[in-house]
Amino acid sequence: MGRKPAITRGAVASAALEIIDRDGMAGFSLERIATALHVRAPSLYNHFADKSEILTAVARAVVLETPRVPDPAPGQWREWLVSECVEFRNTLLRHPNAVPTVFAYFPESLLYKLYGRDSRLLAAHGVPSARALFLLEATHRMTVGSAVCTATGRPALVELPRPDSTEGKDWRSAAATDADESLFVEMLRAFLDGVDLGDKH
Question: Which residue ranges form the domains of the chain, and what is each CATH number?
Answer without folding.
Answer: 9-62 (1.10.10.60), 68-194 (1.10.357.10)
